[in-house]
Write a structure and sequence with these properties.
The complex is a heterodimer of chains A (about 550) and B (about 700).
Chain A lengths: L4 H28 L3 H4 L4 E6 L5 E3 L5 H17 L10 E4 L11 E10 L2 E11 L26 E7 L2 E2 L1 H9 L4 H29 L1 H24 L4 E10 L7 E11 L2 E5 L15 H15 L14 E4 L21 H16 L14 E8 L4 E7 L31 H7 L2 E8 L15 E7 L3 E6 L21 E5 L5 E4 L2 E7 L4 E5 L14 H10 L12
Parallel strand pairs in A: 10-11
Antiparallel strand pairs in A: 1-2, 1-5, 3-4, 3-6, 4-5, 6-7, 8-9, 9-10, 12-13, 12-16, 14-15, 15-20, 16-19, 17-18, 17-20
Helix pairs in contact in A: 1-5, 1-6, 3-7, 4-5, 5-6, 7-8
Chain B lengths: L2 H7 L10 E7 L3 E8 L4 E7 L5 H15 L4 H6 L1 E7 L2 H7 L6 E6 L5 H4 L24 E4 L2 E2 L5 E3 L3 H14 L3 E5 L8 H13 L4 E4 H4 L5 H31 L6 E4 L5 E3 H6 L7 H12 L9 E6 L4 E7 L2 E2 L10 E2 L2 E2 L8 E3 L5 E5 L5 E7 L18 H7 L17 H15 L3 H25 L9 E5 L3 H12 L3 E4 L6 H6 L4 E12 L5 H15 L3 H4 L1 E11 L6 E5 L6 H16 L8 E12 L20 E7 L4 E9 L8 E3 L2 E4 L4 E4 L3 E5 L5 E5 L3
Parallel strand pairs in B: 1-4, 4-11, 5-6, 5-9, 9-10, 13-21, 21-22, 28-30
Antiparallel strand pairs in B: 1-2, 2-3, 7-8, 11-12, 13-14, 14-15, 14-18, 16-17, 19-20, 22-33, 23-26, 24-25, 24-26, 27-28, 29-32, 30-31, 32-33
Helix pairs in contact in B: 4-9, 12-13, 12-14, 13-14, 14-15
The chains are: A alpha+beta (about 550), B alpha+beta (about 700).
Chain lengths: ~550, ~700
């Protein structure tokens, strides 16, 4: 490790530079992407990797994306060894059984050379609006295998020495439902890679290739030491958390999940034994997704100032039994892996970490989203449209040791922004009736969980609807240390003819008529500590603000 | 050479008559008054800012200016043709959360738009972060019935009972100010106007801001946020600006007060009171305006304006003589956590400056900032009790700053305290304070260079095409090193680096801006529609172009369908030819992103009209006379990593360097407001106006 001041200084200079490059790549993606899912829900990530494939810099995007990219890059390199790569190449992979998250996430990578030396990889992953498959929009609640979920590219060359391969591009666009937009998204990803490919060689020049390589290794070592220092601070022992997923798209029952966290010195073992068998439906998380989410959960728990890189991987041993929800056998469907089983991995690991360190823990801050999509043909443009309503990202944050949770905070591990109502209505045939914090949805506790978001909207045309959520009545977000659960997610359909029903939390092929209204509730946050210990002044303030109703029921709705 | 400069060269000053132009910039510590004399010459006068009442500091500085000219205040003001004020009243009220007791009215079902704030969190990884305190209580957000659809049609009426209920509720809340923003009011302002008039009529004395008056542009959250800020800041801005103008008029001011706006233009006090978000960057805008418009910088069309002070650093880019104004981008258009949609110059503020603190993490990594020692206690060398080492402390140890001649000898620096502070961090690492200081200097310069790269990359620009224009107290010490880091060939430090913003005010023009949201595919928009929108905006401007000297600029915000980020393009006129608009968009888009999509996906989001009226500018300051070369007044040991060691650097008194005089690096030039460090391999020369120009002598 850094033996003299010059090295420590170079390290900090390099760290700042890499973060700036990653930021520049991300802004390029944000500005050039053509689909709202990128710019509003920021469902994309960028990263830089060492020539050995270790994560070097990742910025503030979606951390499980980047852990998935690590495995995806390894898969690409397995097919295209570095000596076969050339400057200007870009490789595409979206097959989570080989490495990555779910099929909708397109990972692209470029090798970066200085002279003949490979010095780094630039990567970008982005959730595509559509990937073919049986349902528009990438999520297929009725799928029973991965073939039904869309087209996969197992590590193919998309750009050859700077020239986009027309045969590949046509193949991709021919297999998706929104080819024009998705072409723009894909080119946005390529633009982001180019930023990294241009900037890294300039940076290397400052140090020379050998010194740059050594400094990169030092940066990762430095992070590893800081993460290990945090683990050391946790009391040695075993911490167990159990939870479940409700509904797999085919069956409305609980699918159990369990984690045992073992802290020993500066090592952390995360063992998912006890997790239920793989589901028939699309909620399974591939092994690489499970690992990525585990590491990401650790990133959310420790000191936010520690540079996020491969140093987080090293203190962790992850055990995932095969044939389970978290390591299914091919070809089980995995379309909803990131926010279903993968999302629950976050909740489990964070819960177990909270037990180890109550001062820094929090009630459940759901890492799931309540996705509702409308698909059909827009009469104004006469083109097919896919409208993912992103309001379901407004989950309540968990109560903390000294503060209430964030209201409608966006899921824990994301930087998403909820779209403006006016832009939603300009773009899609819907009208929003209301979008408000859902009263009484925060889990009770010494510190209350945050409120979930409740949205009501009306469709203006006949269309099809898909629902993808969890944390409904059977499995609401748990509180911690005596705190109550957050309000359960749900979707209600109010027909124009006056009839009403609550929909299953995962459903597809629902035919809507113009004028039908949908009410959707994102789950509230889990409470922290015994509600009896809550400061009455806080309760009074909650009542004044309307966060709780004037006649509290004593438990969350 | 411009006609103005030629006139000066001819000594042709008599035809100008007499009179003054005055710029007043209220900063955190000092209030600067710059007085330009029509007969030639510009002078800067300073007084301490009085935080309790900015006007007191303004009058202190004006009194000093009058005394320096052997005039009474009345005589000075009585012969003043323009007075431009940059005020921190709005920014401070927002930072200190001392705005008005405010309520907000919005469409039923959407009161939480201003509570959730689009679910933004500052640091995604910090799940323990406190929820930011809101400037408005949830219970003070009042919902009103009625709904407009996307075309502005009333699909649910706002009834008289709805209006009565709102007024009744506002009465209960006992507020001083109200913001109103209804969904789709940018398409049809009638409902907002009705509410505004009813509230104003029935609640006299209450300040009312309606979104369709302030920024009639699509984006309900950001429009509401901007309107809320106007309501929150309006009463305070109103009291301050009106009282100041009144008092100046009573002291004989011969013109109205013009207020510096965040977009680099100026407006009247009344206009600023109506839209106080325009005041948020009032001060920093001045430096950028100078970078754009100053005659003295006419040969430098591409500038990075770099203002580094004690606690923060403002960076912005001027390309081809025009400030790069960005279209709205979440996170980049935010003040104290609030998004602002009204136009402003693209000024990026970094929380790093001379006061940034040096620290080590638990893994042994070394960092500088973002935490700052601020102005109290300030760097350890200030001797005000600061014990943590800062960038300024490192600069003292490295010999860049003169402990006995700092900030115009306002106070001396304690070198021992600086060294002791550096020891605190250096010792556990096993380094010498000197080695640490060298590292701190490198880290800071590289981080500034990174920021500049990111800002320029935003438009696909290359730093090599730019000159660094550096002002602010801490800038001169770092500029030449940052220039090396970026591979830039030239740095300019203005003659009066401290009064640069105030001087910039004098280069501003009157400006009004207008926007109409279209939000349609370009292919579905015809020329007549676009021309009609521009015509409507010209009418709203209420000015007859030719007669009053107003001129117009035409712009369009565009994107591909599905995107949320717009690219702003300039249009040659308001005729609205879609083919021309398409070509301009595609050129701009391809420049930045390197690819194009199907033209059928091009969306025309907003049309903008900027009305500008040129105002009287100061004449370039008298050309400095050539004189005998000034000798250095001494030398000082300073550390230069280029020489891998210490060197005896000649120290010059910047005030004594005449035109075309210079020195080769390593050298140090001391000025009252800043200290310029010239690196080895560079040469500093003063230009005709007395500005300091540093050029790289290396390839």
């Amino acid at each position: 490790m850094a033996a003299n001041t010059a090295d420590l200084v170079s390290l900090e200079v390099l760290h700042n530079r890499l973060e700036a490059i990653v930021e520049q790549m991300g802004v390029t993606m944000l500005k050039s992407a053509h689909s709202p899912i990128f710019y509003e829900s920021k469902d994309y990530s960028v990263a830089l990797f060492t020539p050995g494939g270790e994560l070097l810099a990742m910025g503030q995007y979606i951390p499980h994306h980047q852990g998935g990219m690590y495995a995806a890059l390894a898969a690409v390199v397995g097919v295209h060894p570095p000596e076969s790569m050339a400057e200007g190449d870009v490789y595409l992979i979206n097959d989570s059984y080989l490495g990555g998250t779910h099929t909708a996430d397109f990972n692209v990578f470029s090798p970066i050379f200085v002279g003949a030396r490979l010095v780094a990889y630039a990567g970008c992953v982005a959730h595509q609006m559509d990937i073919g498959g049986m349902n528009p929009g990438g999520y297929c609640p009725a799928a029973t295998d991965i073939y039904q979920e869309g087209v996969r590219f197992p590590g193919v060359k998309l750009v050859d020495k700077g020239v986009v391969r027309d045969d590949m591009l046509r193949t991709i666009l021919r297999n998706v439902r929104l080819p024009e937009q998705q072409r723009g998204d894909l080119f946005g990803q390529l633009a982001a890679l180019r930023v990294g490919v241009r900037a890294i060689p300039e940076t290397v020049e400052r140090y020379g290739v050998d010194a740059f390589t050594r400094l990169c290794a030092d940066l990762i070592d430095l992070t590893e030491r800081r993460v290990r220092a945090e683990i050391t601070a946790l009391p040695d022992g075993k911490y167990v958390a159990e939870d479940a997923i409700d509904h797999d798209g085919l069956e409305d029952r609980l699918f159990p999940m369990k984690v045992t966290l073992t802290v020993k010195g500066d090592d952390l073992t995360v063992d998912f034994n006890g997790t239920g068998e793989q589901a028939r439906g699309f909620i399974n998380a591939s092994e690489s997704n499970t690992r990525a989410s585990t590491i990401a959960a650790l990133m959310l728990f420790v000191d936010p100032e520690i540079p996020r890189n491969h140093g987080f991987f090293r203190p962790l041993t992850i055990e995932v039994p095969e044939g389970t929800l978290l390591n299914p056998r091919y070809p089980a469907p995995v379309g909803a892996s990131t926010t279903e089983c993968g999302g629950r991995v976050y909740d489990l690991v964070l819960n177990a970490l909270a037990q180890a360190d109550p001062e820094n823990g929090f009630g459940t801050w759901s890492m799931c989203w309540l996705g509702v999509s409308f698909t059909g043909t827009d009469p104004r443009s006469r083109k097919p449209f896919i409208h993912w309503v992103l309001d379901g990202l407004g989950t309540g944050g968990g109560g903390r040791a000294h503060a209430d949770g964030w209201n409608a905070s966006s899921v824990a591990a994301s930087n998403c922004l909820i779209p403006n109502v006016e832009l939603e209505e300009e773009t899609y045939p819907v009208r929003f009736v209301r979008r408000e914090l859902w009263t009484d949805s925060g889990g009770l506790g010494k510190y209350r969980g945050g409120l979930g978001l409740e949205t009501e909207l009306r469709v203006e045309i006949d269309c099809q609807m898909t629902v993808l959520g969890s944390r409904a009545q059977k499995a609401p977000p748990p509180g911690i240390f005596g705190g109550g659960p957050g309000g359960a997610a749900g979707v209600w359909l109010h027909r124009a003819d006056g009839s009403s029903e609550q929909l299953p939390i995962k459903a597809t092929g629902i035919a809507l008529c113009a004028g039908d209204r949908i009410v959707m509730r994102a789950p509230g946050g889990g409470g922290y500590g015994d509600p009896a210990e809550r400061d009455p002044a806080l309760t009074e303030a909650d009542r004044r603000a309307g966060f709780i109703s004037s006649q509290p029921t004593g438990k969350a709705a | 050479m411009s006609p103005a400069v030629e006139a000066i060269r001819r000594g042709d000053a008599s035809s100008r008559g007499t009179g003054f132009l005055i710029g007043i910039d209220v900063g955190g510590t000092f209030t600067d008054v710059v007085v330009a004399d029509r007969r030639g010459g510009t002078s800067v006068h300073k007084a301490f800012t009085r935080p309790a009442d900015e006007a007191e500091g303004v009058f202190d500085a004006l009194e000093r200016a009058a005394r320096a000219k052997d005039l009474t205040l009345e005589a000075l003001l009585g012969d003043t043709h323009r007075l431009i004020h940059g005020s921190t009243v709005a920014a401070n009220a927002l930072i200190e959360k001392k705005g008005a007791n405010t309520a907000f009215v919005t469409t039923r079902g959407f009161r939480d738009t201003l509570v959730m704030r689009r679910m933004f969190r500052e640091n995604m990884y910090d799940l323990r972060a406190a929820v930011p305190e809101n400037i408005i209580a949830r219970e003070a957000i009042v919902e009103v019935g009625g709904r407009l659809d996307r075309d502005g049609n009333e699909v649910e009426p706002m009834t008289g009972a709805d209006v009565d209920a709102v007024v009744a509720r506002l009465g209960e809340l006992g507020i001083e100010s109200v913001g109103i923003s209804l969904l789709f009011a940018f398409r049809n302002p009638a409902s907002e106007a009705r509410l505004r008039d009813e509230i104003a009529g029935r609640m006299p004395g209450v300040y009312v801001a309606a979104s369709s008056d302030i920024v009639p542009e699509i984006r309900d959250y950001e429009r509401a946020s901007t309107t809320l800020l106007c309501a929150y800041l309006g009463p305070k801005a109103s009291v301050y600006l009106r009282a100041l103008e009144q008092r100046l008029l009573e002291h004989g001011l011969a013109c109205g007060v013009q207020v510096m706006r965040s977009d680099g233009g100026v407006c009247s006090v009344e206009e600023a009171v109506r839209r106080p978000t325009d005041l948020l960057l009032s001060g920093p805008a001045g430096g950028v305006v100078a970078a754009m418009a100053s005659e003295e910088l006419a040969d430098e069309p591409n500038l990075i304006s770099f203002d580094m002070g004690g606690t923060s650093c403002d960076i912005s880019a001027v390309r081809e003589g025009r400030a790069v104004s960005s279209t709205f981008l979440p996170r980049h258009s935010r003040f104290e956590g609030w998004d602002v949609l009204t136009p402003f110059l693209n000024i990026h503020t970094l929380g790093s400056g001379g006061g940034s603190i040096v620290w080590t993490d638990r893994g042994g990594g070394l960092h500088v900032g973002p935490r700052s020692a601020g102005s109290t206690p300030g760097p350890a060398c200030y001797g005000n009790g600061g014990v943590e080492p800062t960038v300024t402390d490192a600069n003292v140890l490295l010999g860049y700053l003169n402990p006995d001649n700092f900030l115009g000898r306002e106070f001396t620096l304690d070198r021992e305290a600086a060294v002791a502070a550096l020891h605190r961090v250096a010792d556990p690492l096993g380094y010498t304070p000197e080695a640490l200081a060298i590292g701190v200097f490198d880290i800071v310069n590289a981080a500034m260079a990174d920021r500049i790269r990111v800002i320029l990359a935003d438009r696909g620009d290359d730093p090599h095409d730019f000159t660094l224009l550096c002002y602010g107290g801490a800038g001169g010490t770092h500029a030449a090193a940052i220039m090396k880091e970026l591979g830039i060939r030239r740095v300019i430090v203005p003659r009066d680096a401290a009064g640069f913003s105030a001087a910039g005010f004098l280069h501003s023009n009157e400006q009004k801006d207008f926007v109409r949201t279209v939000a349609r595919a370009l292919t579905a928009t015809d020329a007549a529609e676009i021309a009609a929108a521009f015509e409507a905006m010209r009418n709203a401007a209420g000015t007859e172009a030719a007669e009053d000297g107003w001129s117009y600029r035409y712009q369009a915000d565009m994107r591909y369908q599905g995107q949320t980020h717009d690219i702003r393009i300039s249009l040659p006129d308001g005729s609205g030819d879609p083919e021309n608009i398409r070509a301009r968009f595609e050129r701009a888009y391809e420049d930045v992103f390197g690819y194009l999509s199907d033209p059928s996906l091009i969306m025309l989001m907003n049309l903008r009209l900027i009305a500008t009226r040129t105002t009287e500018k100061p004449w370039p300051t008298s050309v400095m006379a050539d004189a005998a070369a000034a000798a250095p007044r001494g030398e000082r040991a300073a550390y230069f990593s280029e020489l891998t060691g210490w060197a005896a650097a000649p120290v010059y008194d910047g005030g004594r360097l005449a035109a075309r005089q210079g020195c080769a690096g390593p050298a140090i030039v001391e000025l009252p407001a800043t200290t310029i460090v010239v690196r080895p391999g560079q040469r500093l020369v003063t230009d005709h106006y007395g500005n300091f120009v540093i050029d790289s002598l290396e390839d």
